Amino acid sequence: MEATQEQARSESVVGRLARESWRAIFETASRTTLLDEESVMRLRRIQMVGALGVIGHPLYFVIWSYIFPQPYENIWLRLVCTALFVPLLFASSLSHKRWLPAYALFAITVGMPFAFIFFYLENHASLVWAESVIIAVVVLYHFNSAFATIALVAGAAGAFGLFAVAGHSMAGIPWDSLLLQIPILAFVIAVLVVIKLDRQLMIEQKRRGMAVALATVAHELRTPLTSLTMTANALKGRLPTALDPASPQRDGLLQAIGRLQADLAHVNSSIELLVANSKDPHSARQELFEVGRTLHDSIERFPFEPAYQDVVKIEVVEPALVMGNAQLFELVITNLTKNALEAIKRAGKGDIRIRCDIRADGIHVLFRDTGPGVPPQVLARMFQPFFSYPAHRGTGIGLAFCRDVLRSWEASISCQSVEHEFTEFDLAFPHPKG
After folding, report:
1. Could you say which DSSP state residue 413 is in?
2. SMART domains of this UniProt entry (predicted)?
């Protein structure tokens, strides 16, 4: 017995040390782990373009000057472009700097379309530089289309301006070759845009695939849930006769079984609702339900860890009826609660306050946590499907699901946040008609 207790204590110590080690690793990890997946990929693209510029400009100066000499090269322009690309190598470390997006746009504009088009003009539209300009366009349109278009237009305008300032007349511009190049560039840009549209179609296919996967998982879960329900029913039928009526544990066991039955029924109905609404939330039955009672039911059912049992405070001024589906609304609140708890755990501080306000424009449920908050660039994309923050910390469908459900009731959800202070969701319902 003592050996067993000692082993349990040892395992507890080991588990605590493992958790503390993992927490230390997490806290000292790169800041990019606190960014969403797309932001991480954007920073990596910036870093890769920075590496291409830092290596490519000096390398190709040597190639076009000494190995395959071209009519025109400029060491000073190459050095300026190389210097501009150096900070881009540290984009991940500088991700918290507000000036980084503007600087990246400026550096890439100067180092690619501006420099390449200027060299194209100075080299009399040679084949080498015509192909180089096309490559620059391909690299640009791996970024956001607006970013790429601004860089291309600004870079071209700057290159023509510098060409004129360098003492060339309009007659010095290789118009014939330039006009031939424009349709080719337009076709390349069109192809790149189509590829991006194809990516959006893939995202939509992913959404449909997740709906099918959800239906499959639900099908597999129904059998064990049915078995558990039958077991709970059998226990409730036999325990009263098996236990001494005077036993102090009898009532507690019966209450626990009742809670188990209620939870199993709720899980079954939630699965049915999720499957029914994975494609169209409008298919769920709508009726008037009382917001305050549904809020309390959702929080009571949530599986809080012991340390977070009292983290939620609900403030409901007066009863308020809204049109929708109570069980789906519970799933919305459950999702918001889960996200808020994860944020609070990351920050190591905070609580959750839920308030219901009846206003002239409708009934508002305000869900606020005082955890770490989110930065503005994340807030702007909060409800985008498959967007998760931090990166790789979920499927990214929870908030999109909440938005779609509320929209199906002619309600809405919005979010405001101040980084390091709070995040607040406003669930706005219209007043019931009639």
Report:
1. E
2. HATPase_c
Lowest mean pLDDT segment, chosen from 28-42, 124-138, 398-412: 28-42
Task: Of 413, 427, 423, give the one whose Cα is nearest residue 343.
Answer: 423
What is residue 430's DSSP assignment? P
The rounded distance, in Å, linking the Cα atoms of 151 and 79 is: 20
- Based on the fold, state whether residues 303 and 267 are members of the same structural domain: no
Query: How far is the C-alpha of 55 from the C-alpha of 11, rounded, in Å?
Result: 52
Residues 52 and 121 in one domain: yes
312-350 pLDDT per residue, tens: 998 876 788 999 988 889 888 988 988 898 889 888 888
Domain total for the chain?
Answer: 4
In a domain, 315, yes or no: yes
Judged against a pLDDT cut of 50, whether residue 2 lies above it is answered with no
Q: Do 39 and 149 belong to one domain?
A: yes
Q: Decide: 260 and 230 in contact? Cβ < 8 Å.
A: no
Is residue 192 situated within a structural domain?
Answer: no
Q: Report the run of H or E that residue 423 belongs to, with start and end.
A: strand 422-429
Q: Are residues 144 and 114 in the same domain?
A: yes
Say whether both 16 and 88 belong to one domain.
no
Higher pLDDT, 274 or 383: 383
Boundaries of domain holding 114: 35-173
pLDDT in tens, 67-123: 999 999 999 999 999 999 999 999 888 887 889 889 999 999 999 999 999 999 999
| Cα distances (angstroms) measured from residue 371 to each of 352, 413, 419 | 9, 19, 9
376-379: long-range pairs with CB below 8 Å, 24+ = 376/419, 377/39, 378/35, 378/36, 378/39, 379/415, 379/416, 379/417
